[in-house]
Amino acid sequence: MNKKAFQFAKLLLIFAFLAASCRPGPGPTALPTAATTPAGEPTQAGTPSVGVLPTEPAPTQVTPSVRATVSGNSRGYLTTPQELQAIKQKAEQGIEPYRSTVQAALLAAQEALNAKFPRVPDEIDIDEDKIETPKYLSEGALDAYALALGFHLVKESDPLLAEKYAEKAYKLVMTLPRRHTDVSGYQANTRLNLSVYIPAFVYAADLLADWKVPGTDKFFYESPDNQQLKEWLGSVIIRYPYNAAHTRNNNWGAWARLATAAIGDYVGADAPLYIQGFAKGISGEYLINPLAVCDPHAVVDCLAIDGGMAYATALRLHFEFVDGKLVENSRSSCDSEGIPGMIRPDGGLPDELRRQYKCDSIEIKDPEGAAASYSQFAIQPMVSLAEIAWRRGSAELYTHIDPATGRGALYRAIQFLVKNNVRMKHPT
Question: pTM for the complete prediction?
Answer without folding.
Answer: 0.89
